Amino acid sequence: MSLLNFAREEVVTTGLRASVLEAAELLRARNVGCLVVVEGGKPCGILTDRDIALRVVAAGRDPKTTAVEEVMTPRPTVLEEELGLFEALEIMKDRGVRRFPVVDRYGQLSGFFTLDDVLYLIGLELSAVARIIDQGTP
């Protein structure tokens, strides 16, 4: 199975030149903790709510005039959509990163893979196992 079977297809994105205020409003409206920053359909950065708190608010910068590209984490590690789940988890462990843009063979953004999604899927699987065990118990 490819990573796309586990990744979210809908990715919340923003552009390099968007203001941090616009990005924060998008985070709130879409109820997410990070945005993938794209240029030409390819991921070029990640902006998290933590980045905004530490690199903008705590640094005393104006979110209305600060561009996303000034405070994002540039050149994010991406996962290719052909990877398997265990390969992706190994990269996640090695890099100490919880969120990854997923790209196709041309480097175009095609999904988003997070540790939270993996934990949710594991929970669903364990719940299904528990139901099977309950049904077989006299």
TrEMBL record:
Q: SMART domains attached here?
A: CBS (SM00116)
Q: Give the UniProt keywords, A-Z.
A: CBS domain
**Which parts of the sequence belong to the CBS domain?**
7-63, 72-129
Q: Which residues form the signal peptide?
A: none
Question: Entry's InterPro entries?
Answer: CBS_dom (IPR000644), CBS_dom_sf (IPR046342), Diverse_CBS-Domain (IPR051257)
Q: Does the keyword Nucleus apply?
A: no
Q: Which domain of life does the protein's organism represent?
A: Bacteria
What is the official name of this protein in its record?
Signal transduction protein with CBS domains
Native source organism of the sequence: Truepera radiovictrix (strain DSM 17093 / CIP 108686 / LMG 22925 / RQ-24)
